């Protein structure tokens, strides 16, 4: 005992980092209980792995994931968090999502499909958890953003919880679990990472410019593809990629009219049309915002290129989404201009004439047979409309039978509508109701509906600060993009672009925080001590 006393004194003199403490001695030390149990678990785990590898690699990774989470949770606090790398991965994730065909991946035996966005998304999720674990400042700044728009993060978090819980109701648990986990990385992690990244001035504008450039490049690829009637890299697919890639690069023609439908880097023409339609309000902001004449001319010149590529997809949802974006952006511009400058005549003139202008634009789609077919559809598109109606008729009894959801990815088999040998659900709202139940549907609408509300309200009440104006002005096109997204989802169930929309919701949350922070900031004062109004301060 005498020899142990100096040792305990040495322990007491050492600097112990919180929340660590001096370990207990003897049987009171929990290591004596945990170590044998852990050794037994490792023995059983290794035995089962040896019997089932490589066919059950994914379920066998679950304990390792939990161990990694415990290690991240136990990391000590640090002054610096890897936030720069987190922002870089978020941009790389978005570029990989749009510019790289997601079907070009590899699938080793027993291992999930490895794609570019998964290679980037998993490290991004780990870095976000590390930043949350080690940095009190990071947690504080993220919480400030979330407090500015509480309904958005409550909706996103609640929806994520429902996604994870409903996988236990699935008849195909392994498949639903994989989809649920991927959705947490691609949707939830992306949202919370974006809330912190886009709180910094200039980040939203930089991201919007990235979307603009990618939309133009993708449009040029789609237009060139349309002239050749095949995906440009169809003859250059390497042998080591998955077999699904060969199916996705097949030429796509409209069955009734035999018109070729471009899809560029997306799996379907509808996916390409959706992305381009959602990029239209961001490009319009560069055309009407506080930018140089060159930037405005480039934005105006790129809009016809994007619209022409949408026409080449032969997808109504792309043109409808673009029409919604154009009408909503025009209305928002008139309201904002009139609110900021009450002596200007252009804003009130456009606003008062807006009902007539909107009626003329919509009326043109009915006056012209070609425009009516492109926007509202004709005989060639009637089968798609009938298919959606049949799917709703099949899905309603299943929703009433189980309003809590059947699990991620189960909407196709549960609804039971087949196209050849494949199940098909064309409306994302039906997918939400079947997969995640009424509660999941309500939380999803709550998250994006509240984002649209916060974007519109804060765009009107934003402080007229010249340093923030260009960034804050993106609240309007982001809200408009989410409106177009909700409209498109009524006829399109594919979820490939969901990460981009969760990022845009996080941008609205971050910009709303900056608006509220600007409102709380003290007004500038003159040399005589008199406070200036926001307009005079400029």
Which features would summarize this protein structure in a list?
single chain, 538 residues, mainly alpha, two-stranded antiparallel sheet, 23 helices, globular
For the biggest sheet, the summary is: 2 strands, antiparallel
The side-by-side strand order for the widest beta sheet comes to 1-2
The helix-and-strand class reads mainly alpha
Q: In which range does the helix fraction lie?
A: over 70%
Q: What is the overall silhouette?
A: globular
Strand tally, please? 2
Alpha plus pi helix count: 23
Whole-number average pLDDT? 80
Poorly predicted runs: 521-538
Rg (CA only): 27 Å
Oligomer: single chain
What's a quick, concise take on this entry?
With 538 residues, the protein is mainly alpha-helical. It has helices at 4-13, 31-52, 57-60, 62-73, 83-99, 116-134, 136-148, 150-166, 173-197, 203-228, 243-248, 269-288, 293-313, 316-340, 346-367, 369-376, 379-401, 411-415, 428-461, 466-472, 475-488, 498-520, 534-537, and strands at 418-419, 422-423. Strands 1-2 form a two-stranded antiparallel sheet.
